[in-house]
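Sequence, please.
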């Protein structure tokens, strides 16, 4: 099945860090997501200017689910595979 391309914004820079909102419980952690018209969207961004948006979602999710959430920053990068046209 060929995926529908929804948006292909211009690239801004080499991504060296990723920020994500994780839920935490006794069994571990999971990446939080929110529903959108295109399906589920993980709360993960590459640019600090997007942090206010995911912080707002995180606060709402924590309140609605009564779960602890954490905002984390990943800084290690390993290119695993390349996909060429």
């Amino acid at each position: 099945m060929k995926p529908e391309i929804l948006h292909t914004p211009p690239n801004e820079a080499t991504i060296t860090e990723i920020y994500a909102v994780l839920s935490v419980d006794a069994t571990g952690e999971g990446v939080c997501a929110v529903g959108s018209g295109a399906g589920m969207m993980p709360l993960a961004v590459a640019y600090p200017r997007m942090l206010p948006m995911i912080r707002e979602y995180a606060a709402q999710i924590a309140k609605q689910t009564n779960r602890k959430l954490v905002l984390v920053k990943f800084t290690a990068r390993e290119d695993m595979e390349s996909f060429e046209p």
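The longest strand covers residues 18-25.
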